[in-house]
Amino acid sequence: MRKQTSRRVALCGVLAAMMIVVMLLGTMIPLSTYACPALAGVISIPVIWEFGAPTGGLLYAAVSILSLLLTPDKEAALLFALLLGWYPILRPKLQHLRQRPLRIILKLVIFNLAICLVYALLLFVFTSPDLQAEAAGYTLPLLMGTLVLGNVTFFVYDLLLARVSNLYVYRLRPKLFSSHF
């Protein structure tokens, strides 16, 4: 029991540190506002597979709070906290839905609600003059095109999570946690 707890704490600590570093890199690399939270979400996959959703949820909560406190890019931190951080935990449960159209519609609803919440918070709560000035120049066709592109990108992210999960389970997990150690 003690060895299992130590292993859990060690793995979660190392992965949390990696996730925070990735989130901080988002402020240094231009145009990585969306890529860094997505990558940070992918990093949580081993914890979800090894220790389950509750431990993955604690990891997500810790990284979300630290991201909101430490990263200057609040857009990236909110994207992680409100969508890309908890979605890898929810995804396996969504995959159990037998009806594929229902699963796709549910994923679209989740994404669109979360992304609207992120930008509502950015525009009205975490008011940034730069973002408000930029948003004032948006037209409806541009917003709709961006939302459609965001939905397509979200499905690519969903596919990435599936592929990385399979890579972890079938390739990395047997090598990392074999009984030879």
Describe the structure.
The protein is mainly alpha-helical. It contains nine helices and no strands. Helix 1 (2-28) packs parallel to helix 4. The longest helix is centred in the C-terminal third of the chain and has 37 residues, at 140-176. The protein is globular and about 55 Å long. The mean pLDDT is 89.
Topology overview:
Elements lengths: L1 H27 L6 H9 L1 H7 L1 H18 L3 H11 L2 H9 L4 H25 L4 H8 L3 H37 L5
What's this model, at a glance?
The chain is an all-alpha fold.
Features:
181 residues; mainly alpha; 9 helices; globular
Helix content percent band: over 70%
Number of strands: 0
Computed structural class: mainly alpha
What general form does the structure show? globular
What's the SSE pattern?
HHHHHHHHH
